[in-house]
Amino acid sequence: MQTLSLWVPRREFIQALSALSTVRRRRFASVLPVWLRFDGRERLLWIEEQSAAASGAVAAEGSWPAMGATVDLYLLRRAATLISAETVQLGATADAVVVPTDRGYVRLKLLSFGPESRRPRPPQPPAAPPDPLANLPLLKWARDRGT
Questions:
Q1: If you count DSSP H runs as helices and E runs as strands, how many of each does the chain have, helices first?
Q2: Per-residue pLDDT of the chain (147 residues; tens, 9 = 90+)
Q3: What letter does residue 110 receive in the DSSP assignment?
Q4: Beta partners for 90?
Q5: Residue 129 lies in a domain
Q6: Beta carbons of 33 and 71 less than 8 angstroms apart
């Protein structure tokens, strides 16, 4: 399993994550997926919210998967604040983003993101209201007797 890593300036990274966390769509959301996408030509790590209503970029060095990675914004910000070094290392594996900290590492599971995670549900037919007379003993007896 190949690990790809990026190094990002800690202060700017935390500022970008904090700015994105204030632009939240749903009240009391416990998970806010963000897509981490690296532009190798400009050396920028783009952090994009799912609805693309908010995004930010920070300078970065290293290599990153072409498809990017989607993680929880709040957990990523918390992991970045646990680091005392000037740079944050982000390691991408097949199923997670790993952030080494002073006492170990934080493993952030990959989340689904984008149109494939928001499949429209098939329309449900409206439920018929229950018949209040269906359970009357006389009608129940007549229904059972007819069969």
A1: 3, 9
A2: 456 899 999 999 999 988 887 765 555 567 788 889 999 899 999 998 866 577 889 999 999 988 889 999 889 999 999 999 999 999 999 889 999 988 899 999 998 865 444 456 677 788 878 777 777 888 888 888 875
A3: -
A4: 6
A5: no
A6: yes
CATH of the domain at 56: 3.10.150.10
Q: Which residues span the domain enclosing 30?
A: 4-117
What's the whole-model pTM score? 0.70
Strand order of the β-sheet with 61-62 is: 61-62, 4-9, 87-92, 96-100, 105-109
Rounded Cα distance, 94 and 96, in Å: 6
Burial grade of 86 (CB within 10 A; 0-12, 13-18, 19 or more) = exposed
